[in-house]
Amino acid sequence: MESIQIVEFFKNKSILVTGSTGFLAKIFVEKVLRVQPEVKKLFLLVRAGDATSANQRVQTEILEKDLFKVLKGKHGDGFRSFVTKKLVPLAGDIVQEDLGIHDSDLRRNLWKEVEVVVNVAATTNFDERYDVALGVNVLGAKHILEFAKRCVRLEMLLHVSTAYVAGEQSGLILEKKFLMGETLKGDSYLGIEAELSLADEKKRELRAEDAPEEAEKLAMKELGIRRAKLFGWPNTYVFTKAMGEMLLGHSRGDLPMVILRPTIITSVHSDPLPGWVEGTRTIDSVIIGYAKGKITCFFGDLDNIMDVVPGDMVVNAMMATMAAHSGQQAELVYHMSSSVRNPVTYATLEHCGFRYFLANPRVGRDGSVMPMKRLRFIKSMVVFRVFMTLRYKLPLEVMHLVNLLSCGRLARGYNELNRKYNFMMYLVDLYKPYVYFDGCFDDLNMERLRMAMKKDDVEAMMFDFDPKHIDWEDYFCSIHIPGVMKYAFK
Prior knowledge:
Blueprint: H1 6-9, E1 14-18, H2 23-35, E2 41-46, H3 51-63, H4 69-75, H5 79-86, E3 87-91, H6 104-113, E4 116-119, H7 130-149, E5 156-160, E6 171-173, H8 192-208, H9 213-230, H10 236-251, E7 257-262, E8 264-266, H11 284-291, E9 297-299, E10 308-310, H12 311-325, E11 331-336, H13 346-359, E12 376-378, H14 381-405, H15 411-435, E13 439-441, H16 444-453, H17 457-462, H18 472-487
Parallel strand pairs: 1-2, 1-4, 2-3, 4-5, 5-7, 6-13, 7-11, 8-10, 9-12
C-alpha cells in the first residue's frame, strides 16, 4: 500500500455526512474542520422538518458541544463565520427515498458536488422495534447507496457498521464481507425483502386490532429479537446492521466502498478532548449503575477480553480508509478493534472503577458519602440467575404480598427495590452476548493501513488509530471513567 496523504485528501472535498448529530459523526466533523480548514463543504443530513429546524439542530446538538472548544479557540471570533461557510445542514431522513431531501434543485446540486459519502446513521438499540431498525439500518443503507450512485464525482462511500455483525462466533473473526442472504445458522437463507414484508404485515395486523401503542411497540421489539435469533444473531441491532451490509455489497456495482466495523466505541482518548463522550455507551451503563449504587454484583468472567476502541481512533481510521481507497472500484472491510493488538480484560475495568470511586466517592442526596464496595462478579450465568432470584426476586414477591395486605404501606420501598431488580435484569439481557463473547477480531487489513501510515510520521501521529498506543489502566482511570461521570452521568 502506498503512502497516504490524509490531510491533502480532504482539501477542497465536498462530503455528505448522515447521522451527523450522533456521537461518532460529531467527532468526525470536528476533526475534518480542525485538520483541514480548506475542506470545501460538509453537508450534514439531519432529521428535521425544514432547513431552519435542521440548522437549529446543528447549532445546538453539534456546535455547542464541549468537543468543539478547541476548534473555537483556534478560530476565535471568526468561528461562526468559518463554520457557516463550511457546514450545510440538510433537512432529511435516510429512511426515505432520496434521503428525504424534497427540494429537487438541492438534490441535483448535491449529485453534482458531493465526492464522499459518510454513512454513520444507525439505530443502535439492541432491542429496537423491528420496523424501525429495518427502516434505518437496512432501508437507510439502501437509500444512501442509491443516492451515492447518482453523485457524478463520487470517490468514496464509507459505511460504519459494527464488528458484532459476527454474532456470537468464537475464535479469530476475519475482515470478511457478507454474501447476500447469508446467515449465521446453518444453511438457512435470509430473504431481506421477506423480512421487510413480515415487519410491515405485523404492524398492519396490530393496528387493525387497535392495539395500544405500548403493546404495538413491545410486539415489534419481540418480533425483531425473534427473527434475529432465528438466523443466528443475538439482537435486532446487529441483525439489521448485517442486512444493511449485505444490501450494500450486493448492489454497489463498481462504487468505491469501505465498510468499517468498530467494536465497542468508548470516549475520546486524546484528540481533541480526552474523556468526551455522549449518551450512555455500552459499558458505561455498568459504570453509571455502580456509581449510583444500583449495581452491587454482575455476571461474567473478569478474565474475558473486552474489545473496546476510543471514538477518536475510530474517526482516525475512518479518515485513513477513505484517503487510502478513494476512487478504487472495490469493497473493503476493516475491523477497528483492540482484542488482537492490545487486549484488555474486564478485570482492568473493574479495578479502575473501584480505584476511581474510592478516590472520588459519590455523595448521596442527603449529603453523606456513599460507601463503595468492589463490584462482585459471578462467572456462571446459571449461578447468577439463582443468586438474583434468591437475593431479589423472592424477597420482592414476599414484600409485594405484604404491601397488598398492609394497604400499600411498603409501596415506596417495594417500588425502589423492584426498579433496581428490573434495571439489573435489563442489563443482563443487554450484555450477555458480549460479556461471554469468545471471539477476537482480526485486523490484518487495518494493520496494513497502519504500516502505510508510518511512512509519514506527522500524519501517523495526527491520525493515530493503533490500540497498542493505549495504556488501558491510565485510559479508564484518568480519562474514560472521569469522562463518563462528567458528560453522561445524570
